[in-house]
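Consider the tokenized backbone below.
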């Protein structure tokens, strides 16, 4: 049931779901699925499955950029 705050990417994000599942604004992804975001205008906030959770391997080309004001401070620390 863990929620990742809404964010966008300056580069690609590729996620392989290893176990469980997650939902975001664009669909539901379960074990074996690959989610690819390659549009910097896409904003999403994944939610892990409440009962099964989600284990995933995610590769990004650039740091996440959080959208919500209470998380924007994190953006200052992820610019490497």
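A designed sequence for it:
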């Amino acid at each position: 049931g863990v929620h990742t705050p809404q964010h966008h990417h300056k580069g690609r994000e590729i996620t392989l779901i290893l176990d469980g599942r997650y939902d975001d604004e664009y669909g539901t992804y379960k074990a074996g699925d690959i989610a690819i975001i390659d549009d910097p205008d896409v904003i999403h906030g994944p939610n892990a499955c409440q009962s099964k959770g989600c284990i995933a391997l995610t590769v990004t080309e650039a740091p996440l950029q959080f959208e919500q004001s209470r998380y924007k401070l994190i953006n200052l620390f992820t610019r490497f």
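The beta strands are 7-9, 13-24, 27-30, 34-37, 47-48, 54-60, 64-66.
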